[in-house]
Amino acid sequence: MEVAANFPDECRYVLEMLGQVYGHDAEARERGLTAEERLQFHQDRSGPVMNQLHGWLEAQFAEHKTEPNSGLGKAITYLLRHWRPLTTFLRVAGAPIDNNIVERALKRAVLHRKNALFYRTLHGAQVGDLFMSLIHTCQLCGANSFDYLTELQRHAQELTAKPAEWLPWNYRQAIERAGV
Asked: Nearest CA to 171 among 5, 157, 79, 155?
């Protein structure tokens, strides 16, 4: 994206090709395909798109269409150097097409680290870390973090007796068992 202003046509082509792959992945999710079915689906639909993109990337240098030291050339070099890991979703069942979930988690941790500079005590920082971890875990498993923390307070005795039943991914069942 950083070179799009200087190379709009080339960047549009790459983004359109990748857009097709993401479209295929969205379709696979909508259809509820298993990991093996999704792999086959991507091999059939996304494989040819990625092969075409790979050929286009290599042709940019082979046909001297792009200067290797330009911003676009460096981006192409990066893609070609990391091509095998970038196409893992075409070889391994269940492999995601990107690592955006990891990127978001890292950004959250970096932001928390920055904010933690303003804790007054080490204990305060530890409490902040605990809550940040709980809130993020709730988000990852689809639980409302405010509701979760509220229910932990309401059911403190049950939580103390059986803490494993009150983890964010299964606390709703614990509430039902408690008869609330």
From this structure: 155
Q: What type of residue sits at position 122?
A: L
CB-based contacts of 178, cutoff 8 Å, min separation 6: 155, 158
Residue 10, pLDDT score: 94
Rounded Cα distance, 82 and 72, in Å = 15
Please state, in angstroms and rounded to a whole number, the distance separating the CA atoms of residues 65 and 68.
9
Q: What is the DSSP string of 37-82?
A: HHHHHHHHHHHHHHHHHHHHHHHHHHTT-S-TTSHHHHHHHHHHHT
Q: What are the two backbone dihedrals, phi and then psi, of residue 45, each rounded to the nearest 5 degrees?
A: -95, -45
pLDDT digits (tens, 9 = 90+) for 98-120: 988 778 777 877 887 787 788 88
Amino acid at the residue 116: A
In this structure, the dihedral spanned by the alpha carbons of residues 100, 170, 36 and 19, taken in order and rounded to 10 degrees, is -30
44-52 mean pLDDT:
97
As a whole number of angstroms, the distance between CA 149 and CA 82 comes to: 42
CB 178 within 8 A of CB 155: yes
> How far, in Å, CA of 148 to CA of 164, rounded?
14
Range list of β-strands (E), the chain:
none
Mean pLDDT of 118-142: 88
Query: How many residues belong to the chain?
Result: 180
35 has a pLDDT exceeding 70: yes
